[in-house]
């Protein structure tokens, strides 16, 4: 509690901090159980002139000056998501598995030192594990066998004698209490007293514990964590100032070169980046499915595979703008950016459909010659395409400009990609689609072509 108050006072040194709320420990049955040695502090901030990244960096520097603590700074929602993904409240969770706790701790420290050299790594820490005093009773099997005592007999006897065992219940004032039998406090006050305690043996004799086992006070770990029945320790960190993918790739390379793991020890990489890689794989597969579905619908609507491909020729035009905006905004290709690219497929396809269907309408319904139908149709569809793109773009501008604002971590990269794709697909659509249709869309057009004079005035055609 004292350290918690010091941390809260340190947080209030930051001008943007309005209030703090601290929760120390969590119940054993809680979804995120934690001991009293861990605290979560929720901080309410106000918006000043500095970006959020600068505020979090100042908080990290202030907390690093408090001795004896390890801290992690992030958003409450991201902490919950990270905990669901990897069991830790961090973007990167490196899990080291092995049989021996001391070796695990030493190798985890080696990995931590390697990760310190990677730019962008913040809030780096090894899973807290400290030694606590323990009374260890180690059975001497040869001496125990001489008196007919087995390991389970000794464990049961020691547990009953010093920890107690409920042998009955007592009812008092409509309340039930367990009746526990155990040795008195004098027999448990020191290791020597415990070692000299007499216990029964199967042959009927009573022998002191130190005759069949060694009794000593030693240090033991406060927690032993397991995953899939294997002991493990976690090295965790967050990322600031760099994209998550490049940081984890550099960490993998440096750990592979700089940390030698004994036989039976191995590393697993988890956390937010693992979910990001899995989501990227799924989105890639769904992108292929979406493109195939778009082609099928276009084929059914236009009745021609050639025309369907002409409409889909606008997809690369939209991707150009999206890719350019990704690099301009920092070069980070996130899951939100991938979702933005998929959204662009529909927007780009819409522009192509508006042009090609109008070309067909002019040629089939109004008997406009082929060449003139392309020119007239492009002029008549220019305004609707520009108006639609302009309205969509204006709506996305506030989201695209919300860099670093809380709550826009997903919307901002997606809006940037869509905005860039709309710009390129709209303008390149009017340049690329008409020549392609003139070259490959003539099949099926029955109206004879005629020479089109640039000075001729095109008569407007109804929809």
Task: Give an account of the 3D structure.
The protein has 463 residues and is an alpha+beta fold. Among the domains are: 1-71; 134-221, Multidrug efflux transporter AcrB TolC docking domain, DN and DC subdomains; 303-440, Up-down Bundle (Multidrug efflux transporter AcrB transmembrane fold). The chain is 51% helix and 20% strand. It is elongated, with a radius of gyration of 35 Å. Residues 446-463 have low confidence and may be disordered.
Would you identify the CATH architecture of the domain at 303-440?
Answer: Up-down Bundle
CATH homologous superfamily placement of the domain at 303-440: Multidrug efflux transporter AcrB transmembrane domain
Helix run count? 15
- Say how many strands there are: 13
Q: Termini, distance in Å?
A: 74 Å
What level of helicity do the residues show?
Answer: 40-55%
Task: Determine the strand fraction and express it as a percent band.
Answer: 15-25%
Could you please say which CATH topology of the domain at 303-440 applies here?
Multidrug efflux transporter AcrB transmembrane fold
Give, in order, the helices and strands: HEEHHEHEEHHEEHEEHEEEHEHHHHHH
CATH class annotation of the domain at 303-440:
Mainly Alpha
Q: What form results from the Cα inertia axes?
A: elongated
Q: Determine the structural class based on helices, strands and strand pairing.
A: alpha+beta
What can be said about the biggest beta sheet? 5 strands, antiparallel
